[in-house]
Amino acid sequence: MKPDYKNWMPKGMILGVQTVSVFFLVLTYFTFYRTPLGKVFLALTVIFLLCSIWMYLMYRAFSYDGKRQMSKQIINGVSSYISIPAGGKCLDVGCGSGALSIACAIKNPEAEITGIDRWGKEYASFSKSLCENNAKAEGVNNTTFLQGDACSLDFPDETFDAVTSNYVYHNIPSKDRQAILLETLRTLKKGGTFAIHDIMSKSKYGDMESFVKKLKDMGYEEVKLVDTTNGMFMSKWESVWMGLSGSTILMGRK
């Protein structure tokens, strides 16, 4: 049995955009010389065609079976920042297909990893059963997957020895994503480690340098921002054309 971590760029979304491209192409063929709308349809054909090409290139880069395997590189990289004591517990927020939860479980076999996600319609191919099947395929038995909300975690303060997340919070409509970070870190025990990877651009997160200072003022032992677009997970050029500029790991110890 082989794990299926899916793709961060859903194949169904690519096929949908390609179908729309073909639709506008047909309209262009029948209307270009007959009505001014023909030029509009041509423009829409080009736009959707370019979008489908971009999405296909993203799909290839993120594929676990492809040559680039960026997803796998990121998952293994983020999980390497997490340290969990024997018998300890880790929370993975927005676990998706279970990839990061399982990577943490493999690296920390004596710890218990809890992955939560709302598994919404935006990523309909991700589910609790998919996570459980992937854990089984990897021979992992120290993971638990639950329905949950990153904005309001159903766990008491200082429950976990480690918390982690990958490319989740920028997808949540919010005017204050730093508040979501604080909600995650609320569940971390004193002395616990954290590694949260996301697109932490100023437009999405505000001033993260000030946030780092805020955490240090709150008593966190170590807080650091690690740029992952400098060759760590991707090149600067890749981060630009993929729309991942600002990708950063917020990591440290409480």
From TrEMBL:
Keywords in alphabetical order: Membrane, Methyltransferase, Transferase, Transmembrane, Transmembrane helix
Molecular functions per Gene Ontology: methyltransferase activity
GO BP annotations, alphabetical order: methylation
SUPFAM superfamilies cross-referenced by the UniProt entry: S-adenosyl-L-methionine-dependent methyltransferases
CDD domains xrefs: AdoMet_MTases
Methyltransferase domain span: 87-203
Keyword Methyltransferase among record annotations: yes
UniProt-listed InterPro entries: Methyltranfer_dom, SAM-dependent_MTases_sf
Keyword Transcription regulation: no
Membrane spanning stretches: 12-34, 40-62
Superkingdom per UniProt: Bacteria
One Pfam family linked to the record: Methyltransf_31
Descriptive protein name: Methyltransferase domain-containing protein
Lineage, highest ranks first: Bacteria, Bacillati, Bacillota, Clostridia, Lachnospirales
